[in-house]
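Exercise 7. Predict the structure of Intelectin isoform X1 from Ictalurus punctatus.
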Amino acid sequence: MANWLVLLVACVSINLSLSSKEPEYFSPRSCKELMERYEIEEDGLYYLTSPTGVKYQTYCDMTTAGGGWTLVASVHENNLYGKCTTGDRWSSQQGGSPNVPDGDGSWSNTVTFGNAEAATSDDFKNPGYYDITAENVAVWHVPNNERVGRWKLTSFLRYHTESKFLRSYGGNLYNLFKIFPVKNNAGSCPANHGPSVPVVYDAGDASFNHNLFGPHVRARTDPGFIMFRAINYEKAAMAICLGVKPKDCNTEHSCIGGSGYFPEGSPRQCGDFTGLDWSGYGTHVGWSASKQLIEAAVLIFYR
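Solution. The predicted structure, encoded as tokens:
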């Protein structure tokens, strides 16, 4: 009996020792590496390490379309009535001011903000956004303030690319937006739009996605795509068009993450969700998106 107790204590001590040493060698750079090298198969929050040694926590989707998707960012709008004031981290912390025409430049800089667990309650950007070399992106639309363990269950849209398009743009959105900067007067529409890429749906479908926009928007967009750096008639730039490809230059009604200043002026057009409420908040008429789309965070993943 005594020998058995000694052996048990020794085994526990060894396990505790390994656990305490784990951070020294368990340092994957992405959720894909975490899945492939360490056979992790469950969705959830995990710690990753950047090439410069920065450890950070993020969400890993280990089950969709083969798994290995790393959450690198979220775009969130908690108060469309207050847009063009302050606090939109992807557009401008200073509001829609002509004195800051390019905003904060968050789409093409290394500033990080927020935390993974609160990614549906606030804007979020981690080092993986600019450090991970990826091939594809995925987007989730999750209701605001949803708890992390319910993201997949409550997401009403999830779609991803499969064309490995990021290989042509430096391996991530940080480098893509260096080529196609999200800033005021970066070019004209439609000549200077960025790439549009077909998507595959994991939740919802292209028709459902399209119908979340108002009728004027549906008539001027093609469903089943994600588009990057769209420019409108006033030469303002937006970062991402949500599951659609604009056919004209009214891009502020289907795209998010705009530059800091919009020439058409506040409060109708500016901020992270730009002009999604043009014909009223969540009215789903004219140029306005549905309340369901407006009151959801946009989560961005790499693989």
